């Protein structure tokens, strides 16, 4: 039978298509925002930190609200509230107000995450892994589209704010659509054991331990976010400063990165659980990212940068979503709360990394930022190996 929650999933994926735009919209418009807000590039990076602050402020509460009141109210409210950020930033008269708008975007992100992932897991059961990975596909498509949109506005001497206003209009329409769409009964679904990508979780061979695999998955929430966030934030700057590319061409590097992400998540949606285990992906992908980042640093030429950008996108896509789904396998109850813990770690990366990388780019140069990303990839590999060990113990 056709899944009754296809309409819901469609609306959720549209939300994350727009979020993919938002994830790179500040860095892609960095040169315009520095002039408008009378600041420098590092300060625009701090706006991304403000989004992380907003996420962190809301995540604990959002997860509990999701478990108590359901997934739908939070998602619909977030869809409408994103308009404040998208309309506000291009019209902000000063940096302080822009910072407030960025915090509001973070609040919206938390609410959307706390509702979306549990809703997809509850609505798609054994295909939950593929359903959540498609969130990343939606994000990737949005991130592919927005640089070309911005390049079009640049080439036609149009106001950069249109790249904010168009997603705002779509969020408005999608919020109305979701408000009229059916969602799973979260209270009924909470009693069911989630099954990810065909993996039965009817019983444990050994009881899961939160302070081992739980904490490891939470940290993976941090490292997996850092891996792609550093690239999204600083890749255009790397193209301009290290490779001497013009502004429009450097911004388009994000599209090659996003194409790699899209290819990856579509592939994962097909093969995950059938031909490859989620835990294997969590180990192999950071390995690919490690070598791709090394290539980006070593070979300073446009062709190598395009290939590396594609491979980095390919190897960082879906890890966070897989970590969320595996977390619900280990810890079945209160999925809104447990997924929020992973999202809190991701929020910390949005706060800490722009601050750290902004300072590093000033004092040590743009290459140092990508060396940090290499170290993060190594940590991700080690954590994933440990989670794989515990997975075999728990689900023998």
TrEMBL record:
Biological source species: Paenibacillus jamilae
Record protein name field: MFS transporter
Source organism, top-level taxon: Bacteria
């Amino acid at each position: 039978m056709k899944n009754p929650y296809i309409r819901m999933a469609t609306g959720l994926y549209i939300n994350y298509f727009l979020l993919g735009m938002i994830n790179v919209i500040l860095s892609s418009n960095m040169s315009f925002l520095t002039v408008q807000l009378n600041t420098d590039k590092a300060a625009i990076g701090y706006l991304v930190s403000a989004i992380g602050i907003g996420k962190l402020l809301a995540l604990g509460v959002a997860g509990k609200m999701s478990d108590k009141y359901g997934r739908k109210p939070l998602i619909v409210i977030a869809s409408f509230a994103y308009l404040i950020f998208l309309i506000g930033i291009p019209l902000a008269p000063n940096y302080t107000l822009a910072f407030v708008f960025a915090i509001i975007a973070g609040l919206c992100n938390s609410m959307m995450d706390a509702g979306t992932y549990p809703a997809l897991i509850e609505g798609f059961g054994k295909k939950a892994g593929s359903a959540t990975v498609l969130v990343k596909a939606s994000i990737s498509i949005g991130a592919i589209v927005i640089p070309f949109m911005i390049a079009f506005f640049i080439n036609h001497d149009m106001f950069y704010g249109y790249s904010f206003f168009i997603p705002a209009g779509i969020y408005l329409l999608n919020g109305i659509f979701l408000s009229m769409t059916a969602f799973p009964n979260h209270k009924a679904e909470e009693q069911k054991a989630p099954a990810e990508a065909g993996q039965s979780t009817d019983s444990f061979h050994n009881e899961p331990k939160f302070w081992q695999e739980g904490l490891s998955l939470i940290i993976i929430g941090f490292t997996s976010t850092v891996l792609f966030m550093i690239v999204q934030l600083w890749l255009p700057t790397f193209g301009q400063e290290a490779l001497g590319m013009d502004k429009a061409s450097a911004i388009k590097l994000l599209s090659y990165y996003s194409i790699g992400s899209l290819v990856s998540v579509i592939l994962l949606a097909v093969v995950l659980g059938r031909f490859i285990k989620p835990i294997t992906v969590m180990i192999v992908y950071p390995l690919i990212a490690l070598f791709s980042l090394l290539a980006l640093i070593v070979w300073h030429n446009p062709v190598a940068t395009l290939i590396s950008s594609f491979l980095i996108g390919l190897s960082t896509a879906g890890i966070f979503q897989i970590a969320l789904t595996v977390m619900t396998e280990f810890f079945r109850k209160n999925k809104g709360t447990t997924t929020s813990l992973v999202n809190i770690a991701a929020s910390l990366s949005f706060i800490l990394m722009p601050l750290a990388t902004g300072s590093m780019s000033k004092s040590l140069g743009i290459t140092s930022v990508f060396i940090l990303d290499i170290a993060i990839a190594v940590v991700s590999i080690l954590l994933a190996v440990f989670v794989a060990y515990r997975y075999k113990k728990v689900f023998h």
